[in-house]
Amino acid sequence: MSDTARSGRRGRRSVVGMGPRSVAGQVFLLQVALVVLLVLSGAVALYLQSQRDTDAEARSRSIAVAQTFAHSPGVLRALRTPDPSKVLQPVTEAGRKAAGVDFIVVMDTRGIRYTHPMPGRIGQRFVGNIGPSLAGRTYTESVNGPLGHEMQATVPVKDVRGRVTALVSAGLKVTNVNSQVDRQLPIILGAGAGALVVSTGGTALVGRRLRRQTHSLAPDEMTRMYEHHDAVLHSVREGVLIVGDDGRLLLVNDEGRRLLRLPADAEGRHLSELPGLDPETVELLASGREATDEVLFAGERLLAVNQRPTDHAGGPRGTVVTLRDTTELQALSGRAEVARERLKLLYDAGLGVGTSLDVRRTAEELARIAVPRFADFVTVDLDDGVLHGEEPAPTAGTLRRLAVHGVRADAPLYAKDQLIRYKPSTPQARGYHTGRSELVPDLSAAMGWRAQDPPRTQAVLDYGIQSLVSAPIRARGVVLGIANFYRAKRDPFDEEDLSLAEELVARAAVSVDNARRYAREHTLAVTLQRSLLPRALPEQGALDVAYRYLPARSGVSGDWFDVIPLPGGRAALAVGDVVGHGLHAAATMGRLRTAVHNFSTLDLPPDDLLSHLDDLVGRIDQDEFAAENAGEIVGATCLYAIYDPVTRRCAMARAGHPAPALVHPDGSVTYPELPAGPPLGLGGMPFRTAEMELAEGTQLVLYTDGLIEDRTRDLDEGMELLRRTLAGHPDRSPEAGCRAVLEELLPDGPRDDVALLIARTRALTADQVAEWDVPADPAAVSGLRRAVSDRLAQWGLEEAAFGMELVLSELVTNAIRYGSEPVRLRLIRDRTLIIEVADGSSTSPHLRYAATTDEGGRGLFLVQQMTERWGTRYSPQGKVIWAEMAVRPGPSDFPEVSLDSLDSFDL
């Protein structure tokens, strides 16, 4: 025999993988016999069944199709249409083909067809008995119809009221049923042949796979390998379990049995039937899902579970589970977790406590950060002086409760804002005195604490609070207050908790001390600032004035305002703003306000006054800043205005300040074209004065930039909002105007200092002012005296005539002799009686004390004695000598002396 033939036979034997006497071969022959027997039995059974069930099958199929179509939701709607056949014919044909029947016929209650597979039969009477169906029943029958011998079912179609409105009949020819059965016989035979082929190939493949998986091992070798695997399985220190897909325990080693405390007969039983397994364990092991180091409590043990499915490599469905005892590791990790939580609490306290320079808010932040992560209830008590920036008392005399926070709001602790005087025996008093924290694990046994307020402390114990840590709030060696941490219905505080409480309070103490020092500085700055601002407006008749000053919510700025009476019934308005905040800004503001008062006594025009202020600010820069900070400047803005009620003229100048608003008598609001000068202290640019005439009742609105400028709006938006607020209210009083402006522009309070000044102008009427041109002749003085006396008599001020005539004689004679033309005399009746003598000379007289031998030099001395005050002011045309005399009711106290001899009195 050739080698090729032998190799071919070996190949065929390898493909089959078995001999006729081997177990595999015998199994193969058995499979062939079974397949052939099953095919024959199936064919015979199918034939007998088809003979017996032909009518039954045709009947059931007809009924099912007829009922399905009769109950279709669109049938009733189609029957109501004018032409039901048009709608139903395509639908029944599609349903007939889909259902595998020979016909579906829809007819009315008389049996007239709407549909038929043969369209020519539509409109003809139905072949069959429709009586039972008209009675509401389903009726089946075998008839010889247009298609041949048929099995048909007739079903009623009912409307919503249950009335039969139509009939549906479906059926098929009996021969078609038989033909379908006949068609199934080749399929059965083909399936049997395929099964033989598959079983042959499957047996060959299984045989080859078995040899490959066993590595051609002999039975004794496989037994020895199993014993080795079994020894390893039960000696490892990890529990191993195999759970079937149905939740039964298929395998468990000794360690797994010990960890789960399983009985000896556990294998083969369902997990839910095993004693000692809690529901969580059963749920995890029976779930079949993957798990990696998932923690599982089994009694007192903490197990790490790893679970994987067993069918990844084609094995049986189920899971293999490994268990590892991590109880001791968990204890270590638990302590590490506690340490991590404490570090996290300290970290959060560093971020969340002390977010503002407010003592109350800092205390509340400390209380909130510790609940419930560290304590159930926290209270913070501070020395009452700390709230005002003062140094705390050396002992816990009177503490104010600033914060109370807990897991519940009904704890019977002292209320917020209550003043508390702790007894020396309490942990709070001891901690405040020594500066060391006090730990009270059991409050019920702390007699010193219970002595503080027995009814209240008993209520605290009854509430469930049982442990306390009292930690002093200490900064820079000074105790500011006490923080109390309480626990209820959880583990009491221990030494580690005491250290954590001290660390928490230490972090908060720095913020509390910073807030206290800020409060002290803020109080000092506010006190200084308010002492430098006007406490009341001076008396003057030129303007009706109202004002508001609002300090910023934080810090003190240099905003200021002033109303200054000037000679001649005039009044000056000033508003300014010093750049910066704090004591320096407030002090600088006071210096500028004092300077404005001093310069106003010189009766300077607005531009000259601002020039002097500019020089002053420059000197402040030079005096207060070191050489290395020479580039820094104080910086300030100012607006200065002078209003004359006689002429109704207003002169204004500004240095870097917003322009004022003018509310006219008709209700319109304008911003005057006021020349813009540089801020004070910059120098190099002159200031210019703008002069305008104001109608009586016009309101001047002066303000600082804090009113109109904010983070949410720019300067132009603020000025437009101010204009809209002021417009349309000409009759509103200045007081009401201030209130309306602040409510509209600053509803939530100012972020920067705000100074607001609203002044309504007044005007002196013609009968309150008298003017005369004075000839350059001393003899005209007597005529002027008579004219003045007559005018005083008209005003009802005869008692002031003597003094006024004396002053008039001195001032007019002095202007004639030493001044230059033109000379004018003006008499004004306001709150005081004012006389003004103007001439074209800029030479100012001065007061001197004449010797007893001097013939002159006493004129201005007499003027000073007869009047309240006098002075000189300069104008572009020359100067004005003025004097004010108080109007005193009652008879004159002056002697009856003739003034004719004073016509030539030498000043």
From TrEMBL:
Domain annotation GAF: ranges: 354-522
SMART domains named in the record: GAF, PP2C_SIG
Domain PPM-type phosphatase per the UniProt entry, residue ranges: 543-761
Protein name, as recorded: SpoIIE family protein phosphatase
Pfam families reported for this sequence: GAF (PF01590), HATPase_c_2 (PF13581), PAS_4 (PF08448), sCache_3_2 (PF17203), SpoIIE (PF07228)
GO biological process terms, semicolon-separated: phosphorelay signal transduction system
Matching CDD domains: HATPase_RsbW-like, PAS
Membrane-protein topology: Multi-pass membrane protein
Coiled coil regions, renumbered to chain: none
GO cellular component labels: plasma membrane
Keywords noted in UniProt: ATP-binding, Cell membrane, Hydrolase, Kinase, Membrane, Nucleotide-binding, Phosphoprotein, Transferase, Transmembrane, Transmembrane helix, Two-component regulatory system
Location of the protein in the cell: Cell membrane
Keyword match Transmembrane: yes
Record keyword Aminoacyl-tRNA synthetase present: no
GO MF annotations in UniProt: ATP binding; kinase activity; phosphatase activity
Lineage of the organism: Bacteria, Bacillati, Actinomycetota, Actinomycetes, Kitasatosporales
